[in-house]
Amino acid sequence: MTDAERWEEGAAGVLRLPSGRLVRGRGLRRPLPPGEPPPSYGVYLLGRRPPEVPWESGWVRWPDFRLPADPDAARATLAEVWRRCAGERVELACGGGRGRTGTALACVAVLDGVAPAEAVAYVRRHYDRHAVETPWQRRFVRRFG
DSSP string covering 17-61, please? Predict the structure, then answer.
C-alpha cells in the first residue's frame, strides 16, 4: 500500500483502527474536504438510495436514527469496508456523519479487534465524541461481535 492510496492520518474524519488501517467517516450534508482526494470506495448509510458518485460505492439501507434494514447485508458490507480499508481510501457516510456513520465505524472497529463493549468509546475518542447517537445503535455495536 502506498501513501497515495491511503487517507492522510489526522485528516478530517479519518479514524485509525488499532491495526493501522484508516477509514474516513463523513456527513453527506458537508462537502468533501477541500484538497482531499476522493475515496476509492464509499459506503452510504441512508434510508433511500444515495446519489451517484464518480467512485465505486455501496449502499446500506439504514434510516436515520434507526438500525440497518438488513443486518446481515450490513455486516457483509462492513466486512468489505474493513477488508478494503487496508489498502484503499474507504469512507462511510450518512447525512450528519455521527449516528449511523459512528455506529458503522464502531462495527468496523470490532472487526479490527476492538472489544464490542469498548467500540463505541473507541470511536467517540478517536472520531467524534457524539458518534453513535441512540441506545439501540449502541446495543447493535455490542451485539455485532
Answer: -TTS-EEEEEETTSPPPTTPPPPSEEEEEESSPPPP-SSEEEEEE
